[in-house]
């Protein structure tokens, strides 16, 4: 089919830099298409994830300057995952994209790499993933947290995603498959990997942010990590069962001892043991309930079938 290359760019409060970065991304993509000798129009679709700074106005200006640029805005901040989802939906639907590239607005994903990605796509690759060789300007704490998350994620889900990013080229068929997975708790990287299309991986070094600040606090990252873990693995529930089994064995041993003490007429000793057991098993039960409750909450979220995002009415056209 014919159809454009659509660059899907999630943006949230990036007024400080999109005036520069979006034209730069578009320019790099056009150059890449030209040098690959492809006959492919290029469109850039920014998804404004409910920004509260001048992002919308800036996007409108960019659109007026270059009609290859388009954007949609959410009514509020729905998160980057929702923004990517909306971008792919718009790209596959109204824009009839033949191929799309998801890329950050802050130039931490080097647009020069689009050329290499397109070469692989022309060579038949349905997915081209850009993977981090060097993580950028991260603090030691963030690096450690990332390592802990990916280590656990790999062990529990069997998917190694530690170098993966959202910077990916997807052929139309792959994007449609991504969109068919309709879960609310989305994890783009995990979904693409789960689909299992053969992917070509190209490395890049994460640059410094072009301006502004990362949109992720450590707390937000921790919540995102837990959400993604539970979206791709039910192992934490297995952990609860394991703890219960261990507790049962210990319980039986202590019960036997208590009985023996009673028979020997020494029933009053062991008061501290009782207290300790109360405390330990009390917390274990709460922890277990918490983990199970988490999954129940997730089932509830999925069951409600709420839309992934809401687009501002004036942008629907
Ligand atoms: N972003 C978004 N919604 C959010 C947070 C971030 O659309 O709620 C966008 C942001 O504008 C940027 C990309 O996602 O284009 C990556 O965000 P950021 O650079 O803050 O993340 P980091 O590079 O630190 O992982
Ligand atoms: Mg960034």
SSE blueprint and pairings:
Elements: E1 5-11, H1 15-35, E2 42-48, H2 55-65, E3 69-73, H3 80-92, E4 99-102, H4 113-122, E5 127-134, H5 140-157, E6 164-171, H6 172-180, H7 188-195, E7 199-205, H8 218-232, H9 235-263, H10 271-304
Parallel strand pairs: 1-2, 1-4, 2-3, 5-7
Antiparallel strand pairs: 4-6, 5-6
The site of uridine-5'-diphosphate has 16 residues, from strand 1 and helix 3.
Verbal overview:
The protein is α/β, with parallel strands linked by helices. It folds into 2 domains: 5-140 and 157-215, Spore Coat Polysaccharide Biosynthesis Protein SpsA, Chain A (Alpha-Beta Complex); 235-304. Helices cover 53% and strands 15% of the residues. It contains 10 helices and 7 strands. The protein starts with a strand and ends in a 13-residue tail after the last helix. It binds uridine-5'-diphosphate and magnesium ion. Magnesium ion binds at residues 104, 106, 108, 209, 214.
List keywords for this structure.
317 residues, Spore Coat Polysaccharide Biosynthesis Protein SpsA, Chain A, binds uridine-5'-diphosphate, 7 strands, binds magnesium ion, alpha/beta, 2 domains, seven-stranded mixed β-sheet, 53% helix
């Amino acid at each position: 089919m014919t159809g454009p290359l659509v660059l899907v760019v999630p943006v949230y409060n990036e007024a400080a830099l999109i005036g520069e970065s979006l034209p730069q991304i578009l320019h790099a993509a056009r150059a890449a298409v030209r040098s690959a000798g492809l006959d492919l129009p290029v469109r850039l679709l920014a998804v404004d994830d409910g920004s509260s700074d001048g992002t919308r106005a800036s996007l409108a200006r960019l659109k007026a300057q270059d009609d290859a640029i388009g954007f949609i805005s959410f009514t509020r901040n729905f998160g980057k995952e929702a923004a990517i989802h909306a971008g792919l939906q718009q790209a596959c639907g109204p824009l009839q994209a033949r191929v799309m590239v998801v890329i950050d607005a802050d130039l931490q994903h080097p647009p020069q790499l689009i050329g290499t990605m397109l070469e692989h796509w022309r060579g038949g690759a349905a997915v081209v993933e850009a993977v981090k060789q060097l993580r950028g300007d991260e603090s030691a704490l963030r690096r450690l947290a990332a390592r802990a998350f990916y280590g656990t994620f790999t062990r529990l889900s069997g998917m190694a995603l530690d170098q993966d990013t959202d910077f990916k080229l997807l052929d139309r068929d792959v994007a449609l498959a991504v969109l068919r997975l309709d879960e609310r708790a989305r994890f783009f990287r995990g979904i693409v990997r789960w689909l299992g299309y053969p992917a070509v991986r190209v490395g890049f070094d994460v640059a410094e942010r072009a301006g502004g600040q990362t949109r992720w606090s450590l707390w937000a990252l921790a919540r995102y990590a837990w959400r993604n873990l539970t979206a791709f693995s039910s192992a934490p529930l297995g952990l609860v069962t394991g703890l219960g089994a261990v507790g049962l064995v210990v319980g039986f041993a202590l019960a036997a001892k208590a009985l023996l003490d009673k028979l020997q007429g020494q029933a009053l000793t062991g008061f501290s043991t009782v207290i300790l057991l109360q405390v330990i098993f009390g917390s274990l039960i709460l922890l277990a309930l918490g983990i199970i409750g988490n999954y129940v909450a997730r089932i509830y979220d999925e069951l409600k079938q709420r839309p992934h995002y809401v687009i501002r009415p004036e942008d629907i056209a």
